[in-house]
Specification:
single chain, alpha/beta, Immunoglobulin-like, 8-stranded parallel beta sheet, 6-stranded antiparallel beta sheet, 13 helices, binds alpha-D-galactopyranose
């Protein structure tokens, strides 16, 4: 969990014209301050991640150096600053001749040197992109970088964009290998600041859930890309939906928004403690879509520790709040069991819900209702009957 510059701040290198928002030391220090002071870090959002457009070139020994105007005190300074606030620093490179925005890349010859440079700066995470390389170069480069990072002795989380450059599916993508060498990987297209983009990513992940869902687990995650919440493209309902759906997908939660100006309403969505608990569940099992119907209603389920689970009722409708009638038994939960259901957004608790009990959830257009379900153990039958 953390913050990543790309979706919101892109490759804005115009510090003269836009000093507050350009990719620079100042932007990362200001975000670090917000992460530390506004509750983010304490909820788990600890990574402060630089993306493209930080590189100035290579020095006379071939080592990467940041742009000296925009990062005058260097990356080691930023890493120290992040660490002093209890945060971790992430950086970006590209396995190829250039990064996607045309800055110097990592080639097969520089992999080891670059890994050592990052470790020397005390960087904690590397996102390695795949622009401007061939499939063969990527097939050599990603395992090589993984080994080089491990050889530095510094724990550095490794985010690989490799699968996204190979269509994201086997047999072209070898996910067994990826799970061994990467901690997370981008399977699919870049997210853009729109609801359509969220839906297209969700559709792809759901379409291929039989392949993708079993891949995720502690230390190796599918990455459907950043959270848009706090930006310009999503409504309130859509923002909640992205948060809930990404949580069900066991997605790494990387915000990409201006934490200096984010509204309390958007903070609430991103800082919901039960949501984060579900996202970070120690079993690390990715959820699946378990139901869809002709009324554009879908249900997602994610198994959690202690036999708990999370349910998301999602409406793709564009008309009005929809009354969805169902029961846990109809959603293939085991029969004759009793649950407590907590609504993740309202906090409301429904106690003593039997699998067979019919219930109704009211789902807003493009919105979700999300439940945290706990089985009630050793329930006294007479007491249960009384409650019902
Ligand atoms: C690619 C990646 C994005 C971002 C840009 C930077 O498009 O998928 O996430 O890192 O490159 O140029």
């Amino acid at each position: 969990m953390g913050w990543l510059a790309w979706e919101r701040f892109r490759c804005n290198i115009h510090c003269d014209e836009d000093p507050k928002n350009c990719i620079s030391e100042r932007l990362f220090m200001e975000m670090a301050d917000r992460l530390a002071q506004d509750g983010w870090r304490d909820l788990g959002y600890v990574y402060l991640n630089i993306d493209d457009c930080w590189i100035g070139g290579r020095d006379d020994k071939g080592r990467l150096v940041p742009d000296s105007k925009r990062f005058p005190r260097g990356i080691a300074f930023l890493a120290d600053y992040a660490h002093s606030l209890g945060l971790k620093l992430g950086i970006y490179e590209d396995m190829g001749n250039m990064t996607c925005m045309g800055f110097p890349g990592t080639t097969l010859d520089t992999v080891e040197l670059d890994a050592q440079t990052f470790a020397g700066w005390k960087v904690d995470m590397l996102k390695m992109d795949g622009c401007f390389s061939t499939s063969e170069e990527r097939a050599q480069g990603y395992p090589k970088m993984s080994a080089a990072l491990n050889a530095t002795g510094r724990p550095i989380a490794f985010s690989c964009s490799w699968p996204a450059y190979e269509g994201g599916l086997p047999p072209k993508v070898n996910y067994t290998l990826l799970a061994n060498i990467c901690n997370l990987w981008r399977n699919y297209d870049d997210i853009q600041d729109s609801w359509n983009s969220v839906l297209s990513i969700l559709d792809w992940f759901v379409k291929h859930q039989d392949i993708l869902q079993p891949l995720a687990g502690p230390g190796h995650w599918n990455d459907p890309d950043m959270l848009l919440i706090g930006n310009f493209g999503l409504s309130f309902e859509e923002s909640r939906s992205q948060m809930a759906l990404w949580t069900m997908l066991a997605a790494p939660l990387f915000m990409s928004t201006d934490l200096r100006t984010i509204t309390p309403q958007n903070m609430d969505i991103l800082q919901n403690p039960l949501m984060i608990k579900i996202n970070q569940d120690p079993l690390g099992i990715q959820g699946r879509r378990i139901y869809e119907d002709e009324y554009q209603i879908e249900v997602y389920k994610r198994p959690l520790t202690n036999e708990a689970s999370a349910l998301v009722f999602f409406s793709r409708r564009t008309d009005m709040p929809y009354h969805f009638h169902t029961s846990l038994a109809k959603l293939n939960f085991p029969r004759a069991k009793v649950y407590d259901a907590q609504n993740i957004f309202s906090g409301e608790i429904i106690s003593g819900l039997w699998s067979e009990n019919n219930f109704t959830v009211v789902i807003n257009p493009s919105g979700v209702v999300m439940w945290y379900l706990n089985p009630v153990k050793n329930m006294d039958i007479s007491e249960t009957m009384y409650q019902l």
